Amino acid sequence: MSEVFEFTAENLAQAKDFIGRYPEGRQRSAVMPLLDLAQRQNGGWLPESAVARIAEMLDMAPIRVLEVVTFYSMYKQSPVGKHQINVCTTTPCWLRGSDEVVGACRNALGIGIGETTADGVFTLGEVECLGACVNAPVVQVDDDYYEDVDERSMAHIIDALKRGDRPAAGSQTGRAASAPEGGPLTLTGETAKPAGKKAVKNVDPVEIDKAEATDAEATDAEATDAEAPDAVAPDLETGETEAAEPEVVETEGVPGEDDEAAGDEPRTKKE
Ligand code: FES
Predict the structure, then answer these.
(1) Is the CB of residue 136 below 6 angstroms from any atom belonging to ligand 1?
(2) What is the pLDDT of residue 236?
(3) Cis (ω within 30 of 0) for the bond into 266?
(4) pTM of this prediction exceeds 0.70
(5) CATH 1.10.10 domain extents, the chain
(6) CB 133 within 8 A of CB 147
(7) What is the CATH code for 83-171?
């Protein structure tokens, strides 16, 4: 086992603060922030002694702490470079060109995946989904995410880091957050109306409700007109209306023959 690991006074106070955030008996929940704290103190990786110290502080078996360390790619068990470049190569990033991004890193650094440059400045890694697939391909450099990366922008980022600069993180194509390339297409202030109606711009929702209620009333009135019997137009001079001629129902046989014999009037269609 390597030398005994101890937190600095400042980090020990921070570690105790992390532990105190969990209820009595649940202190082991602080294992991840403590590992992160120890790793940052130790130059980016976790010696076995740090794992043992954290296990002791949290009353855990060292193997339980080691299980956490080996599960997450953010924890390193061997020395790493000053800058860690982790390229996501999971499917969405791969489909968007992560192979080319890895190639750009290899060319610029002269190392392969899992290796560190001779000067100890860069370590190149390959990681699973970084949770920012909508801006794929994504590369994590230390604590920053670089998104919408391609060969050219990756080479530019590495050149800047070599000069001691820190290029702006986020989208490398300039898009805002995860908005579509070329700008937002929704929530732009235009409210689309159903087909056949004009688009309205920034209208008070109450006014929209009123307009729709009026439309609905008009539609009901049209439906009522369609169901009503033909209206009888009044005489324009007298103002009287004339009853509509009853519709004669045609019967089989000789028209009126039976009716005449029976002395009946022709039958009319019942309303
Ligand atoms: S697949 Fe690369 S960020 Fe999700």
Answers:
(1) yes
(2) 52
(3) no
(4) no
(5) 9-71
(6) no
(7) 3.40.30.10
**Quick one: CA torsion of 232, 234, 236, 242, rounded to 10 degrees?**
90
Distance between CA atoms of residues 52 and 55, nearest Å: 5
Q: In this structure, what token pair is assigned to residue 199?
A: 């688009």
Query: What is the per-residue DSSP string for 94-128?
Result: HHTTHHHHHHHHHHHHS--TT-B-TTSSEEEEEES
Q: Which ranges in the chain are annotated with CATH 3.40.30.10?
A: 83-171
93: Cβ below 6 Å to ligand 1? yes
pLDDT for 6-42, tens place per residue? 999 999 999 999 999 999 999 999 999 999 999 999 9
Of the ranges 58-62, 125-129, 194-198, which one carries the lowest mean pLDDT score?
194-198
The reply to whether ligand 1 has any atom less than 6 angstroms from the CB of 129 is yes
User: Could you say which of 1.10.12, 1.10.10, 1.20.1300, 3.40.50 is the CATH number of the domain covering 9-71?
Assistant: 1.10.10
Q: Is the CB of 87 under 6 A from ligand 1?
A: no
Three-class DSSP labels, 225-262: HHHCCCCCCCCCCCCCCCCCCCCECCCCCCCCHHHHHH
Which residue, among 90, 96, 91, 34, has the nearest Cα to 59 in the 3D structure?
Answer: 34
Compute the distance from residue 94 Cα to the ligand 1 centre, in Å. 8
- Give bridge partners of residue 147 from the DSSP assignment: 171
According to DSSP, the residues that pair with 129 across neighbouring strands are none
Interatomic CA distance for residues 204 and 146, integer angstroms = 40
